[in-house]
């Protein structure tokens, strides 16, 4: 039975999580109340209603930490909030972006993975998926959720409108 739910989840969510390829070519814009940048450690911390945008990608949090590699390219964004939020379009023709929220959202540029931890939820079209931790891969569309007996993974799929 659980395999059926997971398969249904993959069919509902997977086509919706791919980012627009041209998003990576757009500049990254960050707005916040304050910032502390440590060039020696290749990291920065933005605080106070932080909004990060790059193309159709949008990441919001109370605090956002940014880490870069030795070439100055972004490696990761980690957003923390009550909740932190994430959204992204997969195609220009989509009506609504994929939306996610959690206490912590870790977005890795290197692996193109987003890990939502702590009361995590992803909404795509008419489907909603929630659990303690949700990971999805923007390249493959693979969605993985972790739960337990006391904190279960849930999915709601709405019937197609006729």
Structure notes:
By secondary structure, this protein is mainly β. The chain has a single domain (2-156), classed as Lipopolysaccharide (LPS) transport protein A like domain (lipopolysaccharide transport protein A fold, Sandwich). 7% of the residues lie in helices and 55% in strands. The chain is built from 1 helix and 10 strands. The chain has one helix at 2-13, and strands at 29-31, 34-38, 43-54, 57-68, 74-88, 98-108, 113-124, 127-137, 143-146, 154-157. Strands 1, 2, 3, 4, 5, 6, 7, 8, 9 and 10 form a 10-stranded antiparallel beta sheet that branches. Strand 6 and strand 7 (113-124) form a beta hairpin. The longest helix is centred in the N-terminal third of the chain and has 12 residues, at 2-13.
Reconstruct the topology from this structure.
Blueprint: H1 2-13, E1 29-31, E2 34-38, E3 43-54, E4 57-68, E5 74-88, E6 98-108, E7 113-124, E8 127-137, E9 143-146, E10 154-157
Short recap of the structure:
The chain is mainly beta. The protein has one helix at 2-13, and strands spanning 29-31, 34-38, 43-54, 57-68, 74-88, 98-108, 113-124, 127-137, 143-146, 154-157.
Which key terms come to mind for this protein?
10-stranded antiparallel β-sheet, 10 strands, globular, disordered N terminus, mainly beta, 162 residues, lipopolysaccharide transport protein A fold
- Secondary structure class reads mainly beta
The helix content, as a percent range, equals under 10%
Q: What is the average per-residue confidence, as pLDDT, rounded to a whole number?
A: 80
- Give the biggest beta sheet: 10 strands, antiparallel
Any idea what the radius of gyration is? 16 Å
User: What is the CATH architecture descriptor?
Assistant: Sandwich
According to CATH, what is the topology? lipopolysaccharide transport protein A fold
């Amino acid at each position: 039975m659980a395999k059926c739910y997971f398969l249904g989840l993959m069919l509902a969510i997977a086509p919706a999580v791919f980012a627009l390829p041209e998003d990576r070519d757009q500049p990254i814009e960050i707005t916040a109340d304050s910032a502390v940048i440590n060039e020696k450690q290749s990291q920065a911390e933005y605080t106070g209603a932080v909004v990060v945008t790059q193309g159709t990608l949008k990441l919001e949090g109370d605090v956002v930490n940014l880490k870069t590699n030795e070439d100055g390219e972004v490696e990761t964004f980690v957003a923390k909030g009550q909740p932190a939020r994430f959204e992204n379009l997969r195609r220009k023709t989509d009506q609504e972006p994929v939306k996610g929220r959690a206490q912590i959202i870790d977005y890795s540029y290197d692996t193109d993975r987003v890990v939502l931890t702590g009361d995590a939820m992803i909404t795509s079209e008419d489907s909603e998926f929630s659990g303690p931790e949700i990971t999805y891969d923007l390249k493959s569309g693979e969605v993985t959720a972790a739960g337990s007996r006391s904190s279960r993974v849930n999915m709601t799929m709405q019937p197609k409108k006729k």
